[in-house]
Amino acid sequence: MNVLLDINVVLDVLLNRSPWVADASAVWDAHRGGRISAHLAAFSLPTIFYIVRKQNDLTKAHDGVRVCLETLEIAPVVRSTLELARSQPLSDYEDNLQIACAIEAQLDAIVT
To answer: 19, 52, 81, 96: which could form a disulfide with 61 (CB 3.0–4.6 Å)?
Structure first.
């Protein structure tokens, strides 16, 4: 199964956020164990960096991005992705962009 991880799932793991870290870690471990293929939308990385830096420090933020790049598949964002997101019915463009990334990368699900 190929899944797109929402920003919050990744942040739960990187920041050890209770009570969600247990479930998020199970998904992360399933990817590392080869039971699923986890992807992250490219546009999520700057947000992850910003939030980790705000809650920790610059080194931790760089480490978080490094871990994402080394561990997860990255779903690209190109013009067609942005246009597809505009056509989605939800009122939140970021949610629509997650959906569009999953559609264009032909993923099976979004884990949020």
So the answer is: 52
The span from the CA of 22 to the CA of 17, in Å, is 9
| pLDDT tens, residue by residue, 69-106 | 999 999 999 999 999 999 999 999 999 999 999 999 99
pTM: 0.93
Query: Torsion angle of alpha carbons 28, 15, 64, 79, nearest 10°?
Result: 70
Q: What's the distance, Cα to Cα, between the start and end of the chain in Å? A: 15
The per-residue pLDDT for range 12-68, each reduced to its tens digit, is: 999 999 999 999 999 999 999 999 999 999 999 999 999 999 999 999 999 999 999
**Amino acid at site 88:** Q
Residue 78 has a CB neighbour count (10 Å cut-off) of 10
CA–CA distance, 14 with 25 (Å, rounded to integer): 9
Q: What is the 3-state secondary structure (H, E, C) of 70-88?
A: HHCEEECCCHHHHHHHHCC
